Amino acid sequence: MLKNSIDIVREKYSKINFCLNEKSRRIWAATEASSLGWGGTSIVSKATGISRTTITKALKEISQFSSQNENNPTVKCIRATGGGRKKLTDKYPNLLTDLELLVDPVTRGDPESPLLWSSKSSYKLADELKQKGYEITQRTVCDLLDNLGYTLQANKKVKEGSHSPDRNKQFKYISNKVKLFQKQEQPVISVDTKKKEKIGNFKNPGREYHLKKKSPEVNVYDFIDQKNGKVSPYGVYDISKNKGWVSVGNCCDTAEFAVNSIRMWWFDMGKVLYPKTRKIYMTADCGGSNGYRVRLWKTELQKLANEINLEIHVSHFPPGTSKWNKIEHRMFSFISKNWRGKPLIDKATVVNLIANTKTQKGLEIKAKLDENLYQRGIKVSDEELEKIKIIRYKFHGEWNYKIKQEKN
To answer: pTM to 2 decimals?
Structure first.
């Protein structure tokens, strides 16, 4: 009979246990024990695993809080005031202080702390606290850090380092000149080289839709394919028309390649869009193949000016401000989005992906493979430099200048 009663109570408990909290569980156990009469407390305890002490206390709770006291706020409490496990911060008054000293050892703690030169993960912090005598788990460390206002954060690129005192004035100069050329309906272009891309069956960052478990398989290692090598995409972005040109070079990124890319843009796109133009204004970075100190850049621009019979005006962005160049966030960023997750298996793939890059605001890009071979390290003598018909402006002539065409 006793065994049968235990089985009945155990079956009831298994069916409702999932929805009971601490208080409702003990109240149910006490109610069940009371209904069984003499020996009910032992039967319920054996069937549910709830201690006899807990059931006895619950019986007292039931008798104490009768129906006339149902509005008493303590009736709704799961535990009695002061009941339950004590907080670790109450048990260890210095816990939060010691944790902050570990998280930020330079400003708050010992600058010779071992965690200064290692990853401050929640697991390592928990281990350090245990060595100090605290009984604590990794999960509790996470909760404490959250309460202290700490979150996992990555490095943020905000500090540009040293820069020219006339940095902002140069931005304003470029802005005013762009507006002037646009008002005169003369072409304004932004030029730059996109980062070199390895050609082959390599992983390309990003994701795109595929059937489940049908993702493209690529090489495990990203060693450069000696046969295919890399390509250097040089871009020309028309700020006014929101159109772009990219020359995909299979050789090194030189000033000769950069200017030839501008030449290809002019004959394929610019000449059609601006049939009555007299001059071109271009903005470029201060370094790389189109840097303001590169002699070959100016020499090749002189050749281009003579060839197309146009004045070429150039402004360079100050050092460390390349991200302000329009081509970076108006063209190159969308090219990267368009080929995300796609292996650049050959040069034709690169050209097609660039040429098919479009945006809702009407961006259109043409792309072509430049198969010319450009020599590295071409030296321009002082005599050749002096032949360039360059006019430097009063405000930072090294950054702002124009190259006039030679008259026949």
So the answer is: 0.69
